[in-house]
Amino acid sequence: MTAHTGSGLLAEVTRGKQVESRHLGRAVVVDADGSVVWSCGDVDAAVFPRSTVKSLLAIELVESGAADRLGLSDEALALACASHNGEEAHAKAAASMLAAVGRDVAALECGTHWPTYEPAARALAAAHQSACPLHNNCSGKHAGLICLACDQGVDPVGYIDPAHEIQRRVTDVLASMTQTPHTDANRGTDGCSMPTYAVPLKALAHGFARFGSGVGLSSERAKATERLREAVAAHPFMVAGTGRYDTTVMNNFETRAFIKMGAEGVMIAALPEQGLGFAIKTDDGANRAAEVAMSALLHHFGGETMCRTAKDHAIFADTKTQTLRNWQGVTVGEIRAALTI
């Protein structure tokens, strides 16, 4: 194991032949038993996992039987794990989930923002339409919680409140998966108004090693996590969208890798075949650094079994080092992983 104190170098940005910027942060690889395989920086320090844990929040939707009783599709389950672009397919899928329990957009308590995918936002504006909560990148997660509440006979109103019955249930799952207490002391509020709980980076990675492998989980929970992984692998577009790192990598590797980006440079991954979990947090919150660093880690620790074709190798080559171009399409530099593995 390689260990550093504080933060380590995760990525560099070049212009010409010079390094123009550097991104520092922390990263860790953990096996399903909780042992640290590799680390950089202080991985015992707590971080807010933000949207990386959406798949953990969706476990109860499947494990409770609600997803089956409501006839939710794999696309819907993938959307429940998503931080999507707000493209038309995403908004329609969220609306369909709500319709399954007789609800509509008014039930969502995530707030509204324009689609983060610019062409989708432009299309809305060109049609003289406004954005609505369905376009919020978290609408799938929220729709999933509303579905769970309605299936369980719980009034969904106020489902974002930490004291709400559904919120307590999914928080218990988070605590169990990460083996970390989730209390008022480590709670914050996420951008979509849901609670978010700070946990050690190492615990976050361990949670996803367990999510990917099923080790240490009940048979019912292991089946639920496998179903969510398979849904995401079958519909990676629903998890993020056009041009997004998560979608690009999972579209290629399918069930061999589970990846999820969160806000402020947090990213997780699971390699089910290897039983490994990964977690990264950039100090400056830069997602671009998390992307190249994650690809470097996945390639190093999983590439031997993950890479079966020339395309597999090309995906890693293209995402470990990303070309930077100016507005005229001229190559001006690159962002590249700079981890010492």
Question: What tags apply to this protein structure?
Answer:
single chain, 341 residues, alpha+beta, two-stranded antiparallel sheet, 12 strands, 42% helix
What do you see in this structure?
The chain is an alpha+beta fold. It has helices at 54-57, 59-63, 66-70, 74-80, 88-99, 118-126, 139-151, 165-178, 201-213, 219-234, 236-239, 245-253, 287-306, 310-320, and strands spanning 8-15, 18-31, 36-40, 46-47, 187-189, 195-197, 199-200, 258-262, 266-271, 276-282, 321-325, 331-337. Strands 1, 2, 3, 8, 9, 10, 11 and 12 form an eight-stranded antiparallel sheet that branches. Strands 4-7 form a two-stranded antiparallel sheet. Strands 5-6 form a two-stranded antiparallel sheet. Helix 4 packs across helix 10 and helix 12 (245-253) packs antiparallel against helix 14 (310-320). It is globular. The mean pLDDT is 97.
Give the count of structural domains: 1
Please state the CA-atom Rg, rounded to the nearest Å.
Answer: 19 Å
| Main CATH class | Alpha Beta
Q: Mean pLDDT, nearest integer? A: 97
Biggest pleated sheet:
8 strands, antiparallel
Q: What is the end-to-end distance?
A: 9 Å
pLDDT < 50 runs, ≥5 residues: none
Q: Give the count of helical stretches.
A: 14
Q: And the CATH topology?
A: Beta-lactamase
Judging by the overall fold, what is the CATH architecture?
A: 3-Layer(aba) Sandwich
- The helical percent reads 40-55%
Percent in strands: 15-25%
Strand-and-helix sequence, N→C? EEEEHHHHHHHHEEEHHHHEEEHHEE
Helix/sheet category: alpha+beta
Q: In total, how many beta strands?
A: 12
Note the overall shape.
Answer: globular
